[in-house]
Amino acid sequence: MNCVLGSDNILNDTVLYRVIYEAVGNVLPCGLSYVVAGLAMMMILVNGVLVGAGLFSWVERRLIGRFHNRIGPNRWGPFGLLQPMADLVKLLTKEDLTPKSADRLLFAIVPVAMLAPVILTMAVVPFAKDTALANLNVGVLYILAVTSITSVAIFMAGWASDNRYAMFGASRGVAVLISYEVPVVMSLLGVVLLAGSMSLDDVVSAQNVPFLLVQPMAFFVFLAGISAELNRTPFDLAEAESELIAGFHTEYSGVKFALIQAAEFGAVLTSSAVIVTLFLSGWSGPFSEYFGWAWFLLKIGVLAFMFSWVRATLPRLRIDQLLAFAWKFLLPLSIINLFATALEVYFLRDDAGTLATSDLWVMAGINFGVAFACLIIFGTLIKEKVRPARLITGDTLSAVEAD
Amino acid sequence: MPIHTEPMTVNIGPQHPSTHGVFRLRVTFDGEEILEVEPIFGYLHRGTEKLAEERNYTQIVTLTDRLDYVSSMINNQAYCLAVEELLGVEVPQRAKYLRTLTAELQRVASHLMGIGFFLQDLGTLGTPLMYGFRSREKILDLFEMLCGARITLSYMRPGGVFFDAPDDFWPALDQFLEDFDIEFEELERLILENEIVMVRTRGVSVLPLDLAINASVSGPTLRASGSDWDWRKKAPYDAYDRMDFEVPTATGGDNYDRFWVRMQEIRQSIRIVRQCVEQIEPGATRAEVPLILRPKPGTESYGRVEASKGELAFYVVSDGGISPYRMKVRSPSLINLTVTEHLLVGWKLSDMIVTLGSLDINMGEVDR
Amino acid sequence: MAVHQLSAEELAEKVSVGVPDSLDTTSINTAENVIWVKSSKVADVASFMKSDVGLDFNFLNSITAIDYINHFEIVYHLTSIDKEHTAIIKTRLDGREELSLPSVYHLWRGADFQEREIWDLMGIGFSGHPNLKRIMLWEGFDGHPLRKDYL
Question: Residues 6 or more apart from C74 whose CB is under 8 A from it?
C-alpha cells in the first residue's frame, strides 16, 4: 500500500476508484496511478454503456421480432449475438455523408453531444453497494442537468442538417423535451423529499420500501416523461419514421449514425438504471452484499423489456396531443403527488426528520388511494374524447357471430 | 420583437416511407399545419391501356395483375367479366364459385395490408402489420396451390378460371379459415379499440357523404361516409347473388371509420368464403372458348367489380380484332385521390400520413 | 334490388325534353342503350341528368376517350346511387387538332383527374376545367401517347 487517498479527497467515497487507485499504486508512482485509475474509470464507464447499448440493440431486435411473429437477427454468432458487431462494422465502412448546405461543425458535434449525456448519466448511478463511479451529493440534480443536453443536441442536428424533415423532427423534439422536463422534475421532487437527500446512494439506502410503492403516481409520471425524452413510442415524434423519414437524424450516415443509434439504445439502459435507482430500490435485494449488481441488472432488464414491449405495441400520438398530455395530465398529477408527499412527510416524520419503514407503508397506502382517485377523475375527463359514440360491435358484427 | 413565420413547402415523396409507393405530395406547411396540398403522380405510369391494344385478350390478364398488385385476383375478375360480356360467354358454375372465393380471399389479403400500413403510418412499428401479414402469407400460400403464383396470379381467364383447385387445396383452406378466426381476433383485440388509435383517427379528415359521391369516391372509403353502395350487392356478378353477407357501413367518414369498415369487411369476406366452400359443386371450370378471342366488331362492355379499393371497371371496346381497340381502366385508387385536398388541408403533418393510409391507395393502380 | 341500365329510348325521351336539340342523331348507334349527345351540349345534358328528379345521376363512374382516327368518341358512364340505375352517354369530336369539350368538373368533382388524364393521354381539352394539366406524364412531354397515331 504505497498510495492511500486522503479522507478529505472527494474521490474517497467512490469505492471502485479507491480500489483501482490502491491496486495500481502498488506498481506505479502515486501521481501516475491517480491518472491511471481515472482513465480506467472512464474506460469502464464508456465501454460499459456502449457494450450495453450494443447488447440491448440485439435484445430489442430479437424481442420485437418475437412480437412481430418473426425470428429477428439470428445468424451472426450464437443466437445472433454478434449482430451488433456486424452492424457496427457495416456502419463504419459506410460513406460518411455531410449535406452540402449543412453547418459542418455543428453537424459533426451532434453525435458526440447525443452520446455524452448518456454516458455521463451512468457515472452517478450506483450499480452495487458503494460502486457509483462518482458518488455526487447532488446526483439527482446532476442527472437532470446532464440529460437536458440531449434537447440541445437534437436541435443542433435539425438545424445543422438543413433538411426540412430534420427541422420538423428537431422542433418537435425540443417541444417535447421542454414540456416533459417539467413533470419529470416535479415527480422527482417527491422521491427527494422521501429520501431527504439528492445523492443516489442515499436514495437507494432510503428505500426500505421501494419508492414504486410509496410513489406510484410519481413513478408513472416519470416513466411517461422518460419515454418521451427517449423518443420512444408512443412519444417518438422527433424521429417519427412514418412521417419524418428519421426525423432529426435523417441526414446522418455511417459512423455518425452509429453513434446516434448507440446513444438511443444506451439512453434506454441509462434511463432504466435511473428509474431502478430512484423507484425500484436500486441494487438492493436479497444477498445484495454480494449480488447487488445482479439485482441491478435484472431490474434494468425488466424495465428495458417493458420499454421494448411498449414500443412494439402502441401507436404514436400527435404533437398537440402529446403536449396536452404533458401539461394537462402529467403536470397536475405530479403536482398533486408532490403536495401529498410533502404533507405526509411533514406529519409522519420523527424529530430527527427521518421516516420509519412503517411510515413508508402508511404513505404507500395513502398515495395509492390518491393515485386511483386522480386516475379516475382524469380518466373520466378525457374519456369522452377517446371512446366512440357508437358501439363498435354493432349489427354487422353480431350477424357474423351468430353464424 | 414580433415573431415572424413563413410557410414552408415540403415535397413528401416520391421517396418516402409512408407514401405507399412512388406518390408525391407537394405540401405547404404553416408549422405543422397544412395550408396547401397538391398530389403529383405518374411515376409508375406504364401505359397499361396502350399496352393492352397490342396484346390479345388472354394476354391482357397478366397486365391486370400489375395494376393493383396486392389484389390481382379482383383485377383478373373485373377484366374477365368485361371480356365475357363482350363475347356473350356463360361461365360454368364451379368457376363462378372459385372466382368468388379467390376474390374474397384476395380482398382479405388486401385489406389486411391496407389496415397494416394504416396502423404503421400511425406509428405502431409494424406489429399489427406483421399480424396481418401472418394471415396474408397463408392466403398467398393458398393462391400458390391454385396457380403457382403468389402476387401476379393470372388465375382467371375469360370464360372461367385456368385450373381447378387441387385436392389438397380444400383441407388447406379449411385449416386457414380455422386459424384466421383466432389470428384476426388477436389483431382486433390489439388495435381496434386502442385509445391512441381512437384519439388519432376519430373525427380526423372527415369526408362528408355528398362530397364522397360527387367526387366519385367508391369502396370502403365511400361506405365509411354512410353509403351502402357495394356492387356485389347492387349488381351481383359471379356467385355473389347466392351469397348471404352484409355491407358494413359507418357514418362518420373519418379515418377511424374507414379503418373500421375495412376490419368489418374482412369478417364478411370470410363469411362469403365459407359459403363458397359449402355451396361449390364439381363441374367444369372453364367455358369452351378459343385461345384467340375475337369479339364482334363494334361491341363494348363495362365490366365492373367491387374491388378492395373501390369500383374497379374495365371498359373494353372491340373492333373485331384479336386485341381490344381500346381498354380503359377505371381505377378506384386514382379517383379516390380526388378528395385528398379536401381531406388534408387544415390538418397536421401526422394526420396527413394517416389519412393517406386510410384511403388505401395503390400506386400501381393510380398510375397504371 | 339490382341496379339496372336505363334504355336508350327512355333516356333519349327525357333528355330531348330537358335539353332541347341536344341529341346527336347522325351518329350510328353501335352499342346498346347508349344515347349520343352533341359535343357542345355535353355539360348541359350532364347537368340535366344530374338535377332531374327522375334521373338523378349523382355518381360519375368514368370518362373514356376513344380514338377512331377520324374522330374521337367520349363515353360517360353514370350511376344514380339513390335511384339505382346506370346510363351511358357518348359524344363525338371530329378532327384531330385543338379538340375541346365542355368540362363536367363543376357537376362531378370525380371528373377532375379523369379529364386531366384524357387531356394528357388523348389530347382532348376540357373548357371550364380549373386545373387542366398533364397528370401521368410531365409538362413538356411531346404528344399524347394513347392516340392511335402515337407510335
Answer: C39, C42, C63, C64, C65, C66, C90, C91, C92, C93, C101, C118, C124
